[in-house]
């Protein structure tokens, strides 16, 4: 059921761990937003779709995605929506250096630098010049702001470094509508984009999301080709069709959630991080975010560990394991309440056969 829907929800971001002590600090911090372009798909988004497997392992078929995984690591790819700079404040040219636009100027909490590599074999979305397309942009954490949409100038080559002089601003959209709740599989902002006429060949659609309630900005590079296509994607596993944030087998195609996945609970969002790994095991952490405007009293997080993985110990949380291996971690007394727009973190150790990431969705559930 809805394998693609499950793929969209694997994520990891900003958890803190005092590994030398074998403890996780009880950390409450500001809850960050998350998002990149899903249509046309960004490099990180499409490489994640290409790489993810049902076991929690990563196995890209695309050579550019494989090289990016080798260079930037698994945590970056599982954080496909976290290409961010917390202090950008709407600044672009002159602040984000040329050659680093696809990695937020290398200021993200994760190493996305490999996704700047000039090469012609990144996954591509096929479009028609002069047509109107519907842009979809992930709303893992929804916030007000502007989406600045740029397109490379005619004559730009994918084997050359991407710089600000290569780009033309073609649209700015403020507070577009959303489909699907923030923190759910496939939830996104959407709007219509009129593509310029007279274009052919390769290009990059670059989007800078400028939040109006924060200095935090997000950056997204989508490789496209003007060849008469209608949104088809090539260069990823099973490619040649148009990826959708929903699955045709879902009971309600307008609802991007999968009824077999953990039911997300509105303003609560959980994201997963592998902090350290060794032969036969690893140490991880999960940040539980409250994106609401009121304190959250009580929380619980649920996921299915990767094949061959078993949690052994949890701190700053209370663990229960179902007969099918699904784990649920609930708050303990000292971190029951999460302040508005803040987060707490719990940590764990696990035995593993190498599949350190979840085999499906990780999400907040009813405590």
Automatic annotation (TrEMBL):
Keywords noted in UniProt: Carbohydrate metabolism, Monooxygenase, Oxidoreductase, Polysaccharide degradation, Signal
GO molecular function, one term: monooxygenase activity
UniProt region (Disordered), positions on chain: 230-266
Coiled-coil regions listed in the entry: none
Domain of life: Bacteria
PROSITE patterns given in the database record: CBM2
Domain CBM2: 261-367
Protein name per UniProt: Lytic polysaccharide monooxygenase
Species of provenance: Streptomyces ziwulingensis
